[in-house]
Amino acid sequence: MLPDADELAEELLDLAVPHEDINDLVRMARRVRDDPELRHSLENAVADLVRDMGDLHGGADLPDLDWPPGALQRCFPVYVLVAALPHVRRHHRERGIPADTTRRTLADLGRNMTTHRARHGRAGLQVPRWLTLHFRGELYQLGRLQFQRAPLGPRTAAALTAAGLDVTPETPCLNLHIPDFTGPLSPAACDRSLALARDFFARHYPEEKHPAAVCHSWLLDPQLKRYLPARSNIVRFQERFRTAHQDTEPADTEPVRFVFGDPDLPFPDLPRRTSVERAVGDHLRAGGHWYVGHGWFPFPST
Q1: By three-state DSSP, how is residue 172 classified?
Q2: Segments of 124-258 assigned E as strands
Q3: Which end of the chain is more exposed for a tag (fewer CB within 10 A), N or C?
Q4: Which residues lie closer than 8 Å to 56 by C-beta, 6 or more apart?
């Protein structure tokens, strides 16, 4: 189920896997192909991943390989995702999804591995379950933003109902995600992404109606407005949204994870190189807390 060495290297390049990881992944793949136990584990994991392809399950769990700790165990989810590529591409073709959209969406695998290497200094996947959204047809990269097909949660559905929308907790929506390493979160880039999404989902998922776009992110914490200029990209991104509900449980490690790359960094040592770094670190050092914000805005189908 895994391609041979030459083809595997090309697939990994297309998936934006860090170049320093490719030779080791190609080398270890021979063991996965040749070992009956590993091959069986791979086949079962791929079958579980692609079952009900396109249905909204919020991703899938990838199995922990019962294998000694090391590079092969850490990277086994990569082989599962690569082996699933024919299924993913077939699903995309059946939906008429352009090859460029497929490539840019699945390249999040390499972004995830880059984040893992930056934090741990070795190959691996930072959040394997997150990648299964991309490989199951539940999430797509469209310009600057990612859009996840997902049902509304109960609290968000209640907020939309109060605003006059005819929805339930099972109504599909588009859950917005803001990936790193893709340029500024400028209003123009967001406008372009939203325009792409409006056309994309009307064209490729015409049976689904998405009355709203939602976002659950520390970037929607209104406290950021105390630290950032009114015309900053983050503040203008916040202003697109209406509040769905508010958390009371602090989520201090969320901005530390996404701004500095490691949620375990001690607050006193956080750098102050940019306005966002200063905002996150200074607020925590002053005894404050950060919260995940929950927002929405109407996104009717064309």
Answers
A1: strand
A2: 139-142, 145-151, 172-177, 212-217, 242-246
A3: C
A4: 138, 149, 150, 151, 172
User: What one-character DSSP code corresponds to residue 96?
Assistant: T
Q: Yes or no: say if 167 and 113 are a contact pair by the CB < 8 Å rule.
A: no
CA-CA distances (angstroms) from residue 96 to 56, 148, 284? 19, 18, 47
Phi first, then psi, for residue 58 (nearest 5°) are 70, 30
State both tokens at 197. 């999404």
Element counts in the chain: helices (H) and strands (E): 13, 6
For the segment 177-233, what is each residue's pLDDT rounded down to a tens digit? 999 888 999 999 999 999 999 999 999 999 999 999 999 999 999 999 999 999 999
In this structure, the chain runs to a length of: 302
**Chain segment 59-75, per-residue pLDDT in tens:** 999 888 888 889 999 99
Residue that the structure tokens 């992404």 belong to: 193
Contact assessment for residue 71 and residue 24, using Cβ atoms and an 8 Å cutoff: yes
Count of Cβ atoms closer than 10 Å to residue 54 Cβ: 15
Rounded distance between C-alpha atoms, residue 209 and residue 173, angstroms = 8
